[in-house]
Amino acid sequence: MKTTLRQLEVFVAVASHGHVTRAAEAVALTQSAASMALADLERQLSVQLFDRVGRQLLLNEAGRQLLPQAQEILDRVRELEASAQGGQSAFDLHLGASLTIGNHLLPTLMAEVAERHPRGRLQLSLRNTEQVVADLLAFRIDIGFVEGPVQEPRLQRFAWRQDRLQVFAAAGHPLAHGTATPAELGDAAWVLRERGSGTREVFDRALANATLTPRVALELEQPEAIRQSVRHGLGLGCLSRLELQDAFEAGWLAPVATPFLNLERAFQVVLHRDKHLSPGIHSVLALCGVAL
Q1: Is 0.85 surpassed by the pTM of this model?
Q2: What CATH superfamily classification does 162-266 receive?
Q3: Of 23, 85, 92, 216, which has the fewest CB atoms closer than 10 Å, so is most exposed?
Q4: Nearest to 191 by CA among 166, 170, 220
């Protein structure tokens, strides 16, 4: 057997980053050493694993078939090393979460993981739902936590928590603490999350079902930027109630009732179907109430 773990590590890193230079940095190799390892792997397997588009390397069909197998081998080796060094409870996982979940729910979960599995290590990246899905498909993360619907057949989804979006306004807005009509929502300016976020997808679907088209004044990635923009009168907003409770209690934002909009949603735990389910992944999923 001529294929080495280092070659597989380089292959997975290039698949994740799309560039040999970034992949080399990720696995602590020089660019020339990483390029040689990838070339040796392709030669030994007698197959090209990437399409070269300029300086970017894009997985082709053969590469996509190999990626989950290579990732599983590396996961099992890391699992073996962690077990040898610290017992079965040792693990090193990378989580990806959309912003509301990452800011408001995952800190509690991560604290519980740390308490029950002191040898476990977690890394967290905050993205929008679309980006979390992309990271899962590229095996850049082990477990995803998302707010929006996921249709990708290569991923398996598990319901986790229920949530509801809330339309809100500045405290002095005419609709503050009141009930809006469809016409008032149609006339209003809106400060919204960017397209690709779970929050925006649920909002757009709710307004489309009510035959309303929002007049978007601003699209922002950060919930706090949306809250402050609404506070200063730039429009109405719509975020998770988790993002708004403190501002409502402090009195500088106010809820706007919209009984004709369906703003309910489910937070989901998402895994790649080809992902090796290590004891660490099982431990995190168990704390989420997910049984496989």
Answers
A1: no
A2: Periplasmic binding protein-like II (3.40.190.10)
A3: 85
A4: 220
Please say whether the beta carbons of 204 and 191 come within 8 A.
no
DSSP secondary structure of 246-262: HHHHHTSEEE-B-TTS-
| DSSP H or E run through 264 | strand 264-272
Give dist(CA 106, CA 55) in Å, integer: 37
What is the CA angle 222-164-258, rounded to 5?
A: 100
pLDDT digits 0-9 by tens, 15-48 = 888 888 888 888 889 999 988 999 999 898 888 9
List the CATH code of the domain at 89-153+275-287: 3.40.190.10
Instruction: Give 145's contacts (C-beta < 8 A, 6+ positions apart).
Output: 95, 96, 97, 98, 101, 102, 105, 106, 132, 160, 267, 268, 269, 270
Task: Report angle CA 34, 22, 85 to the nearest 5 degrees.
Answer: 75
Q: Which one-letter DSSP state was computed for residue 147?
A: S
- Check if CATH label 3.40.50.2300 holds for domain 5-82: no
CA pair distance 157, 273, nearest whole angstrom: 9
Q: What is the pLDDT of residues 141-194, one digit of tens each?
A: 999 999 878 889 999 999 999 999 999 999 999 999 999 999 999 999 999 999
For residues 255 and 87, give the distance between their C-alpha atoms in angstroms, rounded to a whole number. Answer: 50
Could you give the CA distance from residue 249 to residue 246 in angstroms, rounded to a whole number?
5
Pairwise CA distance, residues 74 & 262, whole Å: 44
Site of tokens 């699992």: 79
